[in-house]
Specification:
162 residues, alpha+beta
């Protein structure tokens, strides 16, 4: 792939994201206000699948209880983007909060899905919103990108390095 084509594709993705900036910020507010504990993200998963349904983007749901996986395109290369969607318990009026940034990860995952779909890029991309890294003793579960996320591998990382 030539440099000009790569630059054109990159600019197309940036333009697609810029064009939906207000919409993306709205999703972020929705997910921040919908803080749910790990493996209990029923409202969050419903909000995500509602958007995917509106966009006619196929997905798999119910992965590890509430997780969602989207695969766009086919062939190689395979690119994966994984986000978290769970919140932390706290002493607030509803008992949970997105102090970890997972609502932002979920919003970015949806922005990426939408931009890639709008631009028809790349050949194969898998995006997963998964439940609860907090419950795994500060270890991060990485999903294999070799076959568009069919397998899981585990790699530990200190909480301050995730």
């Amino acid at each position: 792939m030539g440099i000009r084509r790569k630059n054109h594709e990159k600019e197309s993705l940036f333009a697609a994201i810029d064009q939906r900036q207000a919409e993306i910020l709205s999703w972020g507010d929705t997910f921040f206000d919908c803080a749910e504990l790990g493996f209990q993200e029923v409202k969050t998963a419903a909000a995500i699948t509602s958007l995917l349904d509106q966009w006619n983007i196929p997905y798999e749901s119910g992965i590890a209880m509430t997780g969602i996986r989207v695969t766009l395109g086919s062939g190689s290369p395979h690119i994966a983007f994984v986000s978290d969607m769970d919140a932390l318990p706290c002493k607030s009026k509803n008992g949970t909060v997105h102090s970890c940034g997972h609502s932002i990860q979920t919003t970015l995952a949806l922005a990426l899905i939408r931009a890639l779909a709008d631009c028809g890029l790349p050949k194969k991309t898998a995006v997963a919103s998964v439940s609860s890294l907090h419950r795994q003793k500060n270890s991060l579960t990485l999903l294999s990108v070799t076959n568009a996320l069919p397998k899981a591998r585990s790699a530990t990382a200190p909480a301050n390095r995730i």
